[in-house]
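Problem: given the chain below (98 residues), write out its structure.
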Amino acid sequence: MSVGPKGAPIELDLCPLGHCVLSFVLDGNHFIHNASLGKDYRIRFNFTGQLSKYHLLQTTAASMVYVIFKPHGVYRLLGVPQHQLADDCTAMSDMLNK
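Solution.
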């Protein structure tokens, strides 16, 4: 997904509910602010656990790749129960112990 001019602030809806998202931010200099949780992230390769509510993201990243997993689908890949990571963003390096 590429949106807006590079470096310009943009807003994204993180959805759908009940799903997990694996995100690759392709821009090296970026930030993501989750307005719904009031948290800032600078993680380029991250995992967001099962979403139980709508999330509004504000970001300067113009190029991202999302992989959206069906409910409980990511358990086969990572072996981590989704309820442990619900509605939170975690660096993949932390999840893979690297």
